[in-house]
Amino acid sequence: MNATNAELFARAQAAIPGGVNSPVRAFRSVGGTPRFLVSAKGAYVTDAEGRDYVDLVAGWGPAILGHADPRVVEAVQDAAARGLSFGSSTPAETELAELVEARVAPVEQLRLVSTGTEATMSAIRLARGFTGRDLLVKFAGHYHGHSDGLLAEAGSGLATFALPGSAGVPADIAALTLVVPYNDLDALAAVFAEHGDRIAAVIVEAAAANMGVVPPAPGFNRALVELAHANGALVISDEVLTGFRVSASGWWGREARHEASAYTPDLMTFGKVIGGGMPVAALGGRAEIMQRLAPLGPVYQAGTLSGNPVAVAAGIATLRGADAEVYAKLDAAAETISEATSAALAAEGVAHRVQRAGNLFSFVFGEALATAEVRDYATVLRQESWRYAPFFHAMLDQGVSLPPSVFEAWFVTAAHDDAAIARIVDALPAAARAAAAA
Ligand code: PMP
């Protein structure tokens, strides 16, 4: 007999803090036993008890082609057979950099790292080294990984667990981060008016998706870049989550299509899709800035596993596979699933609002939020978040795996075909009833 999820969780909790290697996986905000997964294919994941689920987590974003896409698996197997890690340059690293640079014009040069946390941490060091300034501006509810300076009023797990920041961050380091409400240009201008000549950079999720989805107001990114540049500060646009998911050229590419919203960040960060499910992330941007990195410049940054050949192979195969048809499928699946969910909630009288940024979406609950635009973290926190846990569990019981927190985006893949979507749609009425009864 295979071990049950509950048995595996008990054993994991003895060996690993909280039984997990990343907090949101623990189901703390939705309750119950996390599923221990043993395999994934296409739109489905399978747990240790042999149950399968239509997956709307997609590894938290990377699996745009669907899990274990044959092209990606084959690329990984071929690379692995040629050696797991060389600690030396490989032709494939340049190929991945060129693929990104061809898609995202502000990226003239790219440096590969292994996690999104490393990418943003390194981008901030680079911005500080380039400008000779210390302060960093971030937005409330935005998540940029878990480095010391970035945990103040952050989204993702910190939103899920209602944490204002993290223990263990020295006050002197936290004091270098100024937090501003999202989509509030007046507040940003006020911070620049007060500290302008000390601000090295503004870091921003290109479209916020770690407090649930909260898109930028039209023109916000553009105005933010103008304001920062007028004050001699850089802009780091974090596309770890949106990059190569919401379009072939990420959120940047969606806004670049229109003169009124087009913007050019100085630095950008990527992760998730760029590694196709393997540990690849990157920072990139203007060559003049990027060339301040070691070995050319004085800003140090390095990594034993950076540009790992097996991981890079997965990233290249994923980006190559992500053609126009894939993005059309992602958009269509997001449209169908978000509309069906909204209709099911409405049918049960659950006041809610669909939050969308391209093919990323989530829901906020409550009468107060249903009627007006949701543009910032303070508003997101006012929702009836308790309605999510029963909704989540009703879906899980019917074989649909949602993100285990109301403060996370739902992720579709190009493998979400009619059968997968039908299972989701069939599960919605019971889940909406559970949300209504909460
Ligand atoms: N930035 C953003 C926008 C993210 O969504 C995340 C992770 N969800 C990160 C940075 C951190 O990436 P990682 O978990 O790979 O460290």
Automatic annotation (TrEMBL):
Location within or outside the cell: Cytoplasm
Pathway: Porphyrin-containing compound metabolism; protoporphyrin-IX biosynthesis; 5-aminolevulinate from L-glutamyl-tRNA(Glu): step 2/2
InterPro entries: 4pyrrol_synth_GluAld_NH2Trfase, Aminotrans_3, PyrdxlP-dep_Trfase, PyrdxlP-dep_Trfase_major, PyrdxlP-dep_Trfase_small
Enzyme Commission code(s) on record: 5.4.3.8
Modified residues (N6-(pyridoxal phosphate)lysine): 272
Subunit structure: Homodimer.
Protein's UniProt name: Glutamate-1-semialdehyde 2,1-aminomutase
